Amino acid sequence: MALNFWQSTLGKKIVMGVTGLIMIGYLCAHLLGNMKIFFGPGEFNAYGHWLRVMGAPVLHHEWGLWIARIVLLAAVILHAVSAYQLSRRDIKARPQKYVHTKPRMSYATRTMRWGGVILGLFIVWHILDLTTGTTHSGGFQEGHPYQNVVDTFSTWYGNVIYIVAMLAMGMHVRHGFWSAAQTLGAGNHTRDRALKAIANALAIVLTAGFISIPVGVMTGVVS
């Protein structure tokens, strides 16, 4: 039953929709936590510490964080695999280019695939930079996320990579939320306007919020 669901086109679209919503939920929570950087190193470092002890005393040190990481990783993998397989099916179903001119698609629709690739590469860089410290530009300090973030956004390439990725994320969220709503049956002629407004609002708030962090470092608001 589960295998038949996964192998069906509708099943893959549903998996994409559900995992996409999980990731959007994570982005919203992640942004709220990241905004603490504007309240100084004490607040932000305390937030970083809380991530490692959340769920205590029921959960052991970092168990809550690792549960969240595993759920998010599973969502990312399922989302990416579904997207790739649906793309391959679409190509096989239409092996020849359209003879007639297709209706113009939105920028988000036309860049979803490349946006996904950009975000995938960004996630790898982001983890290596601020989680493991492998590619960190300064002296990576375990337990001091505030200084690590400031170090990263004190370099031009750190800012460029992050801002480009956040712009791609915004476009991905805008189109992805709308597509998920349609796939999961939330859309109809009475709710479409509201769903589009929510998709636009999510994309704008998330993009502006995340970009405000490197801008804050560049302008000296965060230092």
Q: What would the keywords be for this entry?
A:
single chain, 223 residues, mainly alpha, globular
Give helix % range: over 70%
Q: Quote the beta fraction.
A: under 5%
* SSE ordering: HHHHHHHHH
Terminal CA distance reads 55 Å
Overall tally of structural domains: 1
Describe what is shown at a glance.
The protein has helices at residues 2-7, 9-34, 41-53, 63-93, 107-110, 112-130, 145-152, 156-183, 192-219. By secondary structure, it is an all-alpha fold.
Element layout with pairings:
Layout: H1 2-7, H2 9-34, H3 41-53, H4 63-93, H5 107-110, H6 112-130, H7 145-152, H8 156-183, H9 192-219
Descriptive overview:
This protein has 223 residues and is an all-alpha fold. The protein has one domain. Helix content is 73%, strand content 0%. The protein contains 9 helices and no strands. It has helices at residues 2-7, 9-34, 41-53, 63-93, 107-110, 112-130, 145-152, 156-183, 192-219. It is globular, with a radius of gyration of 20 Å. Keywords: Membrane, Transmembrane, Transmembrane helix. InterPro entries: Cytochrome_b-558, SQR/QFR_C/D.
